[in-house]
Amino acid sequence: MIDVINQDITTLEVDAIVNAANQTLLGGGGVDGAIHRAAGPELLEFCRHLGGCPVGEARISPGFRLSANWVIHTVGPVWRGGHEGEAALLENCYENSFRLAIEHRIRSIAFPAISTGVYGYPFGKAAFIAVSVMRRYEARFERIVACCFSRADAECYGELLASDA
Ligand code: ADP
Asked: How far apart are CA 113 and CA 130, in angstroms?
C-alpha cells in the first residue's frame, strides 16, 4: 500500500523514515534538521562514524528518540536544470533506500520528497520518480508512505498515484 500524507515525518509510527540528508550526514536544514532535533544528539554522534554518503547512495542508523526504529539517510541531487544526471541520481536515492530497508527487514517506510526543498528539484518531476520507484517496491512492504509537507504537494502525489503514469 502506498499512502500519501501531509505531516511532519518525525511524528510517524513506521519502521523507518528516510532523511533527505547532505553528503556530510552531519545534519542541516529542512527535513534533515527536523529529524536530528527529534532523534536527539545520539543521531549526530552515530552519523559522525558513517563517514558521509555520496549523492544517490543511502546509509542507515537507529532512530534513537524517534518512534521509527531506523533512519535511512540518502543524499539527493541538487537540481541544476535537469541535464546533469539529476533524474538517475534521484531514482538511485529511492532504490538504494528500499534496498537497505529490505536488508534490515523493514516493513513500513516513509519518504519525504527528496531534493524538492533547498536542492530545488521541481516537485512534479521529483514526485513522478518517487512514485515510479515506490510502485516497483509496493508488493514487498506493508506500507510505503509519501510524506508531504504541504497540501499542494500531497495533491500532486495523489494525482500521480491515481494515474497510470
Ligand atoms: P533537500 O535538501 O533534499 O531539498 P529539504 O529538507 O530542503 O531537502 O526538503 C525536502 C522536502 O522535505 C521538501 O518537500 C520539504 O517541504 C519537506 N520537509 C521539510 N521538513 C519536513 C518535515 N518535518 N516532514 C516532512 N517533510 C518535510
From this structure: 8
